[in-house]
Fold this protein.
Amino acid sequence: MTIAAQLSHPSSHAGWFARAEHWLDTKGQGAWIAAMVLGLVFFWPVGLAMLFYMIWSKRMFTSSNTKSKPMTTTRPSGNAAFDAYKANTLQRLEEEQQQFEAFLERLREAKDKAEFDQFMIDRDDKPDTGAA
């Protein structure tokens, strides 16, 4: 048995928890949910403990299809012309994003200044009723 196979399959000396966890992992997220529901039905503390474990170990939020690799933008396609076009497009989009973020910052600053100026005008226009 290879090292990878030994690591992916718990041995007989592993605890029952590790074997059960591995068995549920091979069956998928639906098996975890079914085991949790059955635990809630038959003895609610077990089901609740399984729910907390699933949330803590992030089994609730992982994709069931772990074999597929995510698409990356840095992987070359093998076509030099397309790779050059993609690099130029990504560079242009990054520059546009930076320009847009700078625009939004200037817009926020202008809005803040206008609000402050209006506050100062309103404050100066109010009659001073507290001084005698």
Summary: The radius of gyration is 30 Å. The chain is about 70% helix and 0% strand.
